[in-house]
Amino acid sequence: MRSITYRESGVDIDLEREAIQALVQQLTFRRQGSYGMVGEIGHYSGLIECGSHILALTTDGVGTKMLVADKLHDWTTIGIDCIAMNVNDLYVMNIEPIALVDYIATDKISSEKMIQIGQGLNEGARIANINIVGGETATLKGLVKGLDLAGTCLGIQLSDKIITGEKIRPGDKIVGVPSNGIHSNGLTLARQIVESSSGYDEILPNGMKVGKELLKSTRIYHESLKVCVTCTVHGMCHITGSGLLNFIRLSQYGFDINDPLSIPVIFEWLQETGNVSDEEMHRTFNMGMGYAYIVPDKSIALIKQLVPDAKVVGECVKQPGVRLKGAPIHYHKP
Question: Are 294 and 170 contacting, i.e. CB atoms less than 8 angstroms apart?
Fold first, then answer.
């Protein structure tokens, strides 16, 4: 069987990266006066100076996971995903999320969908301890087919508490935290594999149907705020689209992952069923590690107390790039 790639499924992360860089190069204007921009575009959150504090903004959606929800007629977890994908991008900079606005674009309003999405948004807000302060719903027949859910989240932190990764040094350890499944990335490839095989009702070795496994809500890593209060943390990583390549956003140094977390059964099934290469899997999916701390040795024991399922998976090294058991993970294959 020929190996399936994310690119062939319709998402080219190499082209996407180039296109984003082309877009960002056009964004040269900077506000004059107070409340200026801090840092550059490209980290997990956009930062704005506000006196002794930093305001931060993230924006993200649930992507084509919505199509899986439509197939199963179950939209109860989708709102949690929307919250999670936004607040997790604030946590990685030690920023406390406080408020979110959602945006729903659809070709046709469905009260059933809206109720279930609202239930998920409410549960995600409870877990992350944020207010949903408003939003927008747009009926865009002819432009949108189905329903797309996204959000924009506001966070705040004292300016001297922000963690960007600039303190990361070779010798720091990578402490991985398990995901609870596929989260909200790579669903275009996952859907192609599922829909080209036996479908969403296939039973996995863990007894769950493939469809239900794909709809598990994204884990919200709210414990990271407490970790940063009690431990020295040099950097954090939210493993989203592009998989392990997210580490490159943190530092010019490299990351060697030699003892990865256990791979959940859904990824094993997708890889085997779709005949997907190891590198393609690890640059598309989280592969069981949804979040990571980069810390000095002295912080490891306390992190494990605060996050019991965390585990040391590797370390920071001088050589740039990301390697899994010695094998490099690339944006552009050599």
Answer: no
